[in-house]
Every structure is written in C-alpha cells, then in structure tokens.
Amino acid sequence: MDGQSVQASSRPAGDHIADEIYAIYRNIAGVLHVAPKVIRFVVSKECVDKKSNESYKKYIERLKGKEFSKTEWKRQFGMISEDLSHPDDLDITGLFCLLEKLSRLHDECWRSVKPGDKKCPLEKLSRSDKNGLPRELEKLLDKLRKVKELRNKIMHEFEVTLAPQKFSDLKTALLELIEEAERVYSLPQSEVEDQKKNVHDDFESLQTPDKKSIYHWCTRLAMSGKLAVKNLWKTKLTEETLPLDNSIVQRPEVFHSLDVMVRRSRRDGPDGHVLPYPDIFKAPEKAIIVSGVAGAGKTTLLKNIVLQFFELQEGNADYLRQFNQLILFECRDRTTESLADVIEQHFKDLCRELEGKQNLLDALFLLHALFVIDGYDEVNNVSTNVVSEIIKKTSSSNCRVLITTRPHSARKLEMLLTTNDVNSTEFEIKPLTELAEQLEFLTRYEKSLGIKQGEMTESFKTLNKDVRILFTEPINLILFCDMHKHMPETISSWEKPGDVATDILRLYKKLVTLKLADVTHLECEVMLDDLFVVIGKAALEFIRENAVTFSEKELLQVKRKCIPILKNTVECSSEIILSVVLKVNRPLSGAGETTYTFHHKSIQEMFAAEFIVQRILEDKDTLKSILDAEPEEMSSVREVLQYVVQGLSRCKPRLLKKRWPELKKALTDAGVVSFADWQECLRICPDVEQVAKPAALSKLKENKTWHVGTGREVALVAAMLPYAQPDLLEVKIKPDDPSKRRWAELVKRRVGRVHLVLQNPGGDEYKSNDDILLPMLGT
C-alpha cells in the first residue's frame, strides 16, 4: 500500500489522464521498456566471453565445437535468429530463453574441461560466485521467472494490467534480480548501484505519461483496440448466409467444432494425431498453418475464432488469452495495399487520435497480437504484399500468425515463412467422415433454419454410402441443406458423387427461374443456359487471375454480356440473375468500393468447370485454348479441372477418354503431381479410371504399405487397386464405415495380403460383421 501512495503523490497535479490509462501506461512501459534493459544487463554478464560482432549461433557453435544445421538450430533455439549478435530485439521471453540455454551450456563446458585446463573456451566467465562457492544459477533464474510471470500477467490479463500495485511489484522484482546477479557474477558494488539507480530513474520517469511515447500508443490499444475490432467485425461475422437461397443463420449457433490433424511434413501427410482445434495454439512456432481442401471449413473456423476472441470469459476460449489484439485479413482483398492500411481499417479512430497509422502499427508489434490471415490460396497481386509484410514483421516481434490455405498452396506458404525466418507448424482439418458427425452438423442447421426436427437428417441417412462420401466437408453439408429445402425430390436420385454437382447448378437455375416468374411466363431454359455460359466464362477468367472478389466495374462487364441474351427473351435487369449467383460485400468502414463474390470459391469453380465442359462437348477447341491460361496461372484452375473431369465422366465418358491426354497435362501443369494431389482428384472423381491409375502409381511409388482407416479411404483404394498392388494393405475401420459395394470391390481387386482390424463400437463386440467378412470368403 505504501508503494501505491508514493506513486499517487508523485503524479502531476494538473494531469487529467484517467486512472486506468495511467496504470496501464506504467505497467506496459515497465514490462516492455525497463524490464528488458535489466535482463539484457544480466545476459551481458553471462556472455562476457562472446565477441561483440559474434552472433549467438556462432558463439554457441564455438563452445560446442560443432555447427548447427538450420533444422537443429530451429529445434533448440527457435526464438533466437541465427544472425542475432545483440539481445536488443528480444523481449523478456526471448531473453529468458537465451539466458537459460547459455547458462546450461557454460556449465557443460566447465564439466567437460578439467580445472586449470587452458583449452577451456570460457576465459572471462568465473565458475565461482561472490562468496567463492561454485556458481548456482537456479536462484537467478527463479528471480527472472518472477519477472517473466509478472510480465505475462500484465500483458495477457487485462484486470492485472489495470492494477497499480503491479508497477511496484515489477520494480521490486527487478531490484531483486540485480542483487542476485551481483552474487552470481561477483559484480562490483558500484556497478550494482548504478544499475539500481537506472531502475529507480526509469520508474520515476514513468510517473509522467508521455503521449508521444510508443508505450502510450500501446496503452491506447490495450484500452480501446479490442472494442474497435469488435465493432468492425462482429456484425459481419455473426451471421452466415447459406450459398444458394440467402437464408441467414447465426454463426455461433451452427458452428461445428472441427478437429485437426498434425502434419509432420507435407510429404508424410497427417501423422494421425487428432486434436481439437484450440490445441493448435499450443504449438510453439510463430506461424500456425491450417490447411484443408475446398469447403473444409477453414474460413468458418477462423471467423469463429475471431468471434470467440471478443467474448473471452472465464473458461471460454482460454486459448486466446495469450493475445492482446487480433487482426483479420482476407487474401481475396484486392484493394488494401499495405499492412498500415489494414491497421487503419481496424483502428480508424485510434489512428486519428495517435497521429497516424504507422504509430499504431509500431505499437501493435510490441504487443502480443494474433494476425489471422484467411485463404492464402486466394492471394493476388495486391494482397500478397500485405501478407509478406505481416510475415516479415512477425519474425522479430511478439506476434503470431494463423493462416489458412488449400493444401496445394501450403508449399509456397512454407517457403515464404522460411525465407523470412518464421518457423511454422501445419495442421490439416479433419474431414467429417463419421455419420454421427455429419448428422450433428446438419442438426444445428436444421434447428437454426426452423426445419422440423429430424426431417433433414433422416433424408441424409437415406443417401447411399457412395454418395455420402462427398459430404465429408462442411460446404457440401451446407449445400445439402439448400438442396433439401428447394429440391428434396432429387436427393433420392443421387447414385454417384457427380450427380450432386449437377443438381447444385440445376438448383441455381431453378432459383433464377423463380425470380423470372415475376416478370415473364415465357420458357427461359435456353436463355438460362446462355446466361450461365457468360457467368461461367467470367468465373474462369477471374479464377485465372486468382480473383474471387469483383469490383463494380468488373461486374458491369459481365452485365453487358448478359443484357443482349435477356433482351432476346424477356425485358428485365441482369441484376435478377446475378443477385442469385453472387453476394454483395459492402465495405466495413462505410468508405471504399462495394465488391461481389460467388457464395463460395468452390461454387465459382463449379460454374467455371461447367463452361469448360460445354465448350469441350462442342468438340471444336483444344483445352489449352479454352483455358487461355499462362503457365503461372495454371495452379489457380487446379480444382476447376477436377470438376471438369467429374462433369465429362458423368455426361460423356468416351469424350473424357479422348480428351484425357490434354486434361492430364493440364492437371500436371496445375501442380497435380504427388499422390496427395491425385488423391484429391480421385476424391471428387471416385469412378474415373483415368484419375485412379496415376493416383495408384504415385501412391505405390511413395509407399509400399497402404493404410485404410475410413469408408472414404476404402473407396479410394478400391479404385486404385486395378492399377497397383501394395506389398501390404492394412485396414483398420469401423464395420459400418464403408459401403458394401466399395468394400466388395476392394476385396475382389486385392492381390496379396490384407491385415484387417475391425473396430466395433463399445458394447457391440459380438456383432457378426457379415457385410465385411462375407466378401472375403474364398479370397
């Protein structure tokens, strides 16, 4: 209490800064400015044998007598860059890590060299403390931990940030650290007194807040930043619009908590370790990559993380408490040119108050901010600069990056991170392969949309398992909701996954027809086909440029092409058609351009694929001329080509066979090379032998033992077995997972051993499992 009264008495009488801001300012400046200075002083005493121009990496290699590879260094000293030679850029956590590792290394050096041996590389650092005893650093590290814990509480718990007493606690902890350093390093009394005086002077200077100081900017962010971001994003993110009929649901009500799988490396694939999504933040790396196929739920996951950040309560989303601020950036953005512009969008009023967005940006990188970047696979010529700037600045800050991408762009992303010395861990979103998971997902939408309980889920249960394989991604389950609402009669007719994509486009035409019914009674089928060609061509042109948002000017070009087609049949605005296919994105700040997008990138790809299929059916042009893509644009049309293969296999299998060499080359040019790439094609086109063969050969090349763990994998392996046979096929599944047809195909086509492990649910250990075992008789 005495400490508090002293602080209050030394506060300038005419200063009207609110008590809370005053407390926050001192606490933040204390942990960001004063504490690191003291710890750097201690580190300098531990490193008296390091040459001034020598990096810590070179110094440690000199002591150990060996060099570290990049991987080894990252694993052992991940927080310390390879070229760091002075600890000025390290915060308390980095300094603690450095001191702890160096002190242990020095002890190892002494243990490996006999006393008095001239070969010891430590010439200046003493083995003895001030009392002549062997030096013991545990007490010093304990004192340092106390400072670190104070810093963590001040920076991560807002109620602690507001507490005036923490300013005194921090000062006491720093003085105790200096006193312990005196004992360990036998420091002269004069040097110790100088350090203590510096601490007293620094703390005294913080009694008078400086509004031009970066710590004042940090204070304003701590006070108002979170609310500013909440006001910006919450309204937009709380509601979710269904893709086909613009029905609105509340995102928190329908959010399905996704699991993720840890990736050891892209080549190895998921390592099978399944985690709940909040555990991704337990990874120590600066960057967290969340990958997933089209429609896997990447964007939805990020949006829910953002919403949870605003509603932090005890026991709710504790994994986000480590972050002071959150910044969301969408890679599809084609108008925001710099990170400073992103900051201005998030903190418009604060930028004005603090005399510029650059001041706020500098302050942000002193805090623990989470940059949430959505859709790296959608990055364009403008947004790539913003993403690169975020990653570059993150490498030397307290901030972290959470970024989503489709798998084929993860390699490029990892290279960008590595180039900027940012270590990363990748997590892949686990597909919803279990029927119980799928029904749980649909039940939430059933309730939110006001559909009679059990009606939609019972309809889903009637799907045959070959079709149900398609519904392992959230976007397809959401599209099922739309199909059930508008075309329930078609659901029972689905026999293959390709039937679903056809009906999605048919549903779009039906919804447009319903709109046109208000203005005409004429037959519009031919007109709609022509309009969808225009829309599909535009979709392809935008995809080539990796653009999923369109400006009003770009949309006007599409409208101009629609008008002549409409005038031949009916007098109406092109808005009627485009309002069904596209959604409007109004600028959050109220200023700037309105943009337009398809309801989901995969739907844009379906429209583009349908355009290509129709052109191929005319059998006039080469695929290369239809795509009209530069080599560097081919990766953008990768998923489009998969839908093209699916569409041709459904309507003209013989034409697919004829055009396959062209399609295969285009897929290869688009980056479909490894088994993981071909497997994704095979997932969308499970009955296409042209896809199954390269998938099988690439799989066998990568691994002679094949593992099967889900019904979906049964279908994939059954399709591949005619073209390649592994040495061993290990099947570990629940008996009800695979379809009877796919399992029978797998057993019939397998030449060689099958190691089968059936995972019967608890309480059902004595189930006959005839559907699995009978096809194996006689094999």
Automatic annotation (TrEMBL):
A UniProt-annotated Pfam family: NACHT
Top-level taxon of origin: Eukaryota
Family matches, as PANTHER family: NACHT DOMAIN-CONTAINING PROTEIN, NUCLEOTIDE-BINDING OLIGOMERIZATION DOMAIN-CONTAINING PROTEIN 2-LIKE
Protein name: Uncharacterized protein LOC108665263
Residue ranges of every copy of the NACHT domain listed in the record: 286-407
InterPro entries: NACHT_NTPase (IPR007111), P-loop_NTPase (IPR027417)
